Description:
Layout: E1 5-7, H1 14-23, E2 27-29, H2 31-52, H3 79-93, E3 97-100, H4 103-117, H5 126-138, E4 141-142, E5 145-147, H6 156-166, E6 180-183, E7 186-189, H7 190-197, H8 208-213, H9 217-247, H10 257-261, H11 266-279, H12 302-305, H13 307-329, E8 337-338, E9 350-351, H14 359-387, H15 412-428, H16 450-486, H17 495-505, H18 525-536, H19 539-548
Parallel strand pairs: 1-2
Antiparallel strand pairs: 3-5, 4-6, 6-7, 8-9
Helix pairs in contact: 1-4, 3-6, 4-5, 4-9, 9-11, 9-13, 9-14, 9-16, 11-13, 13-14, 14-15, 14-16, 15-16, 16-18, 17-19
Amino acid sequence: MTKPLHLGQGPISLDDMIDVARHGRAVALTDAAREAMRVSEEWVSGLSAQMDRGEPTQAIYSINTGFGSLSGRQAFKTSAQARDLSRRLVVSNSAGVGRLFDEEVVRAAMLIRAASLTRGYSALRGEVVETILAMLERGVIPAVPEYGSLGASGDLIPLAHMALVMSRDEAGESEIDSGQAWYKGELMSGVAAMKAAGIERLVLGSKEGLALLNGTSFSTAQTALALADAETLLATAEVAAAMSIEALMGFGDAFIPELHEARGHAGQIECAANIRRLLEGSALIDGGIGKDPVRQPPQDAYSLRCVPQVLGPVRDTLKFVRGIVETEMNAATDNPLIFADRLPGRSLKALSGGNFHAEYVAFAADFLSIVVTEIGNIAERRLFRLNDGTLNRGLPDMLVASEHVGMDCGYMLPQYLAAALVSDCKTLAHPDSVDSIPTCSNQEDHVSMANNAGRHARQIVRNIENVVGIEVLMAAQALELRLAERKQGREALSAASRSVLEMLRASAATDGRSIDHLEKDKVLYPRMQAATELVHAGTVLAAARAATGG
């Protein structure tokens, strides 16, 4: 990526986030962003100066008070205490457990936090954001455990692990309390990582500790990454479905545009158009636009003919989720927010509210989990049908033409795996957003559980990438068996199916062997792993689009 992403020139998009999180795109801070941050930072600096002069200063949450249920106990008297408070908050909140988040999650969360802070309502110095951006640029990735956030008050614990690396006690460096970070493939202390990268750790000022911690950045990052992958997965699932429909000599009537326009849902209409394009030119499809079906009645099982009615709503839901995610990526989500040049008639420019409450993100992640599970649900039914000799219109049982029937299991077990994965998703897709456990002496008496929802969404997407990868493998096998049965060449296939089939057969499994036609049993996991990666990377989708121009 040669063109940096400039914070402060406009909202960042999902594509921007993917470029930074996965592809190392540089991020720069604009003068406009610095100016936006300066206004609220100067208001808080004025309060600090007032405190140091010994003048009476009203208690303002998180600036000269404690946090949560401790906020009303005592107001601190000096700016030194306020700075100490920021660092102590970071130290006390670094309490996560579990596996470490993937690097792409941490990078995405760092970008989202930086974008939120540049809105100008968080009262922190430009140097704080510039430190985050320097860490991104030079590859200092804080080690952040995946468990700890309730999704309100924001993602306190995960963000504290990030802030622990970039900040220090005013009394001096303390390696033991500097957290851990990855730098050039090595896990080391935060002190060591920042020193190796040539980045100075900061003494945080008044409110800066809470500004770094009190936001929805990790919940949003996970949901956004899951969404990006889900969008590719959905389009690839349409490709896999079309290949299965073609292999099973399905009916084209189910995808005629008038049928879908009669219902009127945009996602369904778009999905049906995609399936028609993917099947165009196939000699195996019966009926369709301008052509009566030969076999009667022209009805396939629901897992074939209802693809637009199932994947269409998935498409519409993912569009809705994208709107929420992209809004949240650019939202000011800490507390209190400072409106230093606004709120006429008030001397108190700090507003305590609840923008850290991640219910929007929790709902988005839950909706995503539900609809992606349905991608796998209907795909698994097609796998079952491809394997069953009583349902697959004359193909061999388990999609293997064995010399002695029963000698080879063929694709029997991949369908088992798909069933296990889909069942796992059905459990994971239980909405996290309907759960809440009160914390902080009942001050925080309703929380969103958005971090859990985001984690589950990412796992569900990965599960279903495996299921769709299996369908690509099995549909390719079935297409070759169907051509052999009918004594036809690949020219009988649609251009999209032919392109995907050729790409697949030219690809290598993870053990280095080719992903060839299965004539007898082989170890299958290396080819299934490779197929999943072809789905995840968008390679299957690219092959189909290269053939159709869509």
